[in-house]
Structure formats: structure tokens, C-alpha cells
Specification:
Helices cover 24% and strands 25% of the residues. The chain is of the alpha+beta class. The protein has a 3-stranded antiparallel β-sheet with strand order 3-7-6. Strands 1-2 form a two-stranded antiparallel ribbon. The longest helix is centred in the middle third of the chain and has 15 residues. It is extended and about 70 Å long. It starts with a strand and ends in a 5-residue tail after the last helix. About 3% of the residues have low confidence.
């Protein structure tokens, strides 16, 4: 049976003895775990409730969690940034300032060739001292992130439905 491990929050097929294959913890033993934590998937267009994702209390403090991955340019035959930069400098010297800057802006591989996912989430000032929420998983295909959150936050997200409304 597929279930979410209460220790590592990974969806797994638990072994017959209750062991999670991901973290090797006993999924039946939840002593000492924070029972108020669960997971939720949020997308870039999600409208999140005004509840802190960490503690479940009301807040109006919204943050954006940003993650990226490189796209393209990973092929061994692709020109590196140094070659493109040098080409842009030569082009700039030959054809004037604006021609070279224009070419450089369109050919430069980094940081422009990155795929970004930016997801809104609520976090109160007190919980922000522990840093921003870190996603368990980023889905670059669907532009979503999966977070460990307080059950109050998750319940309000679920109440809004799949479209966030």
C-alpha cells in the first residue's frame, strides 16, 4: 500500500514489517514525531491561505520560494560561457557598443538558461527565523513544489480546491 512516511514524508510502499524503504524508520512508531506536520503541493499560481505554513497561526507575511535548474548548454559540444563572452567582446569591438551588448544578451548561457519555479507560501515572522521553507520536491514540468507544512495550513489549502480558489 502506498503511504506517506511520517518520518521522511516520502510516498512509499511500506514493507510488511512497517519499515519505510526510504529512511528505514518504522512507520508504525510515531512516538516523538510532530503530529501536526503533513505535506502539501503548491504551484506557482496557488492562492495560499493567510496561515503560517510552519506553525499554523494567522499571518499576512507572504514569501516566494524560488528554485531553478539549468536547461540546455549541458551538451559537451556546446560552447562555454568564456567562448561566448570572448565572441561578444570581439563583436562589440568590431560593430560598436550596442551591437555587441545585444548579441551578448542573447547568447550568454548563464544565468538566462535556467528554468525557474517560484511558489508563494505564508510564513510568520517568528518561524522565519529558522529560514524559508525548503521544498521536499520541485516538479519543473508542472511548476509545483511539495512542502512539509502544518496541518492547519494544509487543510485550508485543500479547502480552496485544486485551482486555489
Amino acid at each position: 500500500m502506498l503511504m506517506e512516511c511520517p518520518h521522511c514524508f516520502t510516498f512509499v510502499h511500506v514493507r510488511a514489517d512497517g519499515e519505510c524503504p526510504a529512511c528505514r524508520e518504522d512507520t508504525n512508531d510515531v512516538r516523538g514525531l510532530d503530529q501536526d506536520l503533513t505535506t502539501v503541493v503548491l504551484g506557482e499560481a496557488s492562492r495560499v491561505p493567510e496561515i503560517c505554513c510552519s506553525c499554523g497561526l494567522a499571518t499576512r507575511r507572504r514569501i516566494l520560494v524560488k528554485q531553478w535548474k539549468p536547461v540546455g548548454g549541458d551538451h559537451p559540444d556546446a560552447a562555454d560561457d568564456g567562448q561566448i563572452g570572448a565572441f561578444a567582446m570581439v563583436f562589440n569591438a568590431l560593430f560598436g557598443l550596442f551591437g555587441g551588448l545585444f548579441l551578448h544578451a542573447f547568447l550568454k548561457r548563464s544565468p538566462h538558461n535556467r528554468q525557474w519555479v517560484c511558489v508563494p507560501i505564508m510564513q510568520c515572522e517568528a518561524c522565519s527565523e529558522n529560514g524559508p521553507p525548503q521544498p521536499l520536491r520541485v516538479d519543473f514540468e508542472y511548476f509545483t513544489m511539495r512542502f512539509v507544512v502544518h496541518r492547519n495550513f494544509q487543510a485550508r489549502v485543500e479547502d480552496r480546491g485544486p485551482d486555489g480558489g
